């Protein structure tokens, strides 16, 4: 899908809103292998769809993930992040119980903070290449 296909139109607006999100695991524990990252991408995709957002790109390493999200103006980015950071650990914990030792207090996979950057200065293609270039663990 090209950038022009991602443009949202309303009665009085034409919008192209992207955010680059980064979530880091608690204590930077190396939680994810490639299998875990593939499943995490599916979980994140489902949450984004619930918010009528598009997950444009996803990747990560053993202790963090990057997301590039196209979102409508009615979505408060903080609400989307809250949902992503609460749903993903529950699903991953249920599906990968052997990884539970990496969860702080049984439920905390992510640190409390996160990075959210509006995307507009650099072309989306450059940001996509950056996220694609993350070294996935084996």
Automatic annotation (TrEMBL):
Gene3D superfamilies the UniProt entry points to: Transposase IS200-like
Concerning Pfam families, the annotation shows: Y1_Tnp
**InterPro entries registered for this protein in UniProt:** Transposase_17 (IPR002686), Transposase_17_sf (IPR036515)
User: What are the GO MF terms of this UniProt record?
Assistant: DNA binding; transposase activity
Annotated Transposase IS200-like domain ranges read: 14-134
The processes (GO biological process) annotated in the record are: DNA transposition
- What SMART domains does the record point to? Y1_Tnp (SM01321)
Matching NCBIfam families: transpos_IS200 (NF033573)
**What name does this protein carry?**
IS200/IS605 family transposase
Q: Which gene encodes it?
A: tnpA
